[in-house]
Design goal:
The chain is mainly α. It is built from 8 helices and no strands.
Length: 201
């Protein structure tokens, strides 16, 4: 994919070029929204809103990391959603359907290569991680999702959130510490390489 050429074409109004970019980045954008909002439907809405906003403001993109620019757009959409609707004091560990029933194995987590027992364990770990992410302050959660889930470097996270680099480093360090503390209660679910105590800590 010639990203630069696609961006140039999209900036000139080529919808097909923009759609190619959307297809390439839609998973990263959606996963960022899910991690920040902790809700599949809201994340879908935020992702759609982000891509619409990105298309409308594409001419303002002046180079650099297009991924970071897109993730800044979806991050803003998520923060707008959180401001519009205050988060509930507690978030269920299990996601729910529209009818309020718990979803035992959300469709986006399914891995056909896992046995039922392995899938159940993977689901529990996924829920534990999201539970701990949801417990973080929004600014910590946003920074650590962009860095540790999406793989942006500190400077790209700073660009995406529009805060100083030193602030980003501090937020990510504090977020990781809080996540480690939270995940201690779920430690039996963690793969050996990620155990919080011992040689692998």
């Amino acid at each position: 994919m010639d990203e630069t050429a696609l961006i140039t074409s999209a900036q000139q109004g080529d919808l097909n070029a923009f759609n190619t970019l959307v297809l390439h980045y839609q998973d990263a954008v959606f996963n960022t929204a899910v991690r920040i909002l902790g809700d599949d439907d809201k994340a879908q809405d935020a992702s759609q809103e982000a891509f619409i906003s990105a298309f409308q403001s594409l001419r303002s993109f002046r180079g650099g990391s297009f991924k970071a620019w897109l993730l800044r757009t979806v991050t803003n959409a998520c923060l707008d959603e959180l401001r519009r609707k205050k988060r509930r004091p507690t978030t269920p560990l299990e996601p729910e359907t529209n009818d309020g029933d718990e979803v035992e194995s959300p469709k986006w987590l399914a891995d056909p290569n896992l046995t039922p027992a392995q899938q159940a364990e993977a689901d529990e770990l996924e829920h534990a991680i999201q539970h701990c992410l949801d417990a973080l302050p929004t600014e910590f959660r946003t920074a650590v999702v962009l860095a540790d889930v999406q793989g942006l470097d500190y400077s790209e996270v700073a660009q995406a959130i529009r805060v100083p680099l030193g602030t980003i480093k501090s937020r990510i360090a504090r977020a990781r510490l809080k996540l480690r503390e939270c995940l201690r209660s779920f430690e039996e679910l963690l793969p050996a390489a990620f155990r919080l105590d011992g040689e692998n800590a």
